[in-house]
Amino acid sequence: MLQQFAVCAGRLSAVMEDQWMFDGPASEHTRDELAAMVALVEALMPPDSGVRVMDWRIKAKVAQRALLYQARFRTDARLSAVAMARAEALTAECRSLLLGQAGTLADVAALN
After folding, report:
1. Tens-place pLDDT, residues 26-60
2. C-beta separation of 11 from 91 below 8 A
3. CA distance 3 to 54
4. Of 21, 29, 30, 52, which has the fewest beta carbons less than 10 angstroms from its beta carbon?
5. For residue 7, what are the contacts with CB-CB under 8 A and spacing of at least 6?
């Protein structure tokens, strides 16, 4: 779960930055989700694992940012739509891990 939470923190960070440019008000909600995800990472992170966890976060952020860039700036409409759909799916997957975002607690438990 630690890696999944760290990856999601990276993804949500990229989404929040994208929203700063294109959807300012949504960035406030994403900021709160990111804070919750970071709290989960910090709660689960064993001592001396900070470098590994930060590596997961950064790689996920870069990958999500690349998808969002393709979605926003690609000239091929089909590829742009594919990139946006993938970015949205990954973001939704992360949001489903947060209480209050998932359909039920069973949905969260099923991800374990």
Report:
1. 999 999 999 999 999 999 999 999 999 999 999 99
2. yes
3. 10
4. 21
5. 56, 57, 59, 60, 94
Comparing C-alpha atoms, which of 100, 92, 97 is closest to residue 108? Answer: 97
Among left, alpha and beta (phi > 0; psi -120 to 50; other), residue 73 is alpha
b/e code 42-65 from CB counts within 10 Å (16+ = b): eeeeeeeeeeebeebbeebbebbb
Distance of CA 76 to the CA centre of its chain: 25
Instruction: Give this prediction's pTM.
Output: 0.85
User: How far is it, in rounded angstroms, from Cα 70 to Cα 47?
Assistant: 37
Distance, CA of 112 to CA of 109 (rounded, Å): 6
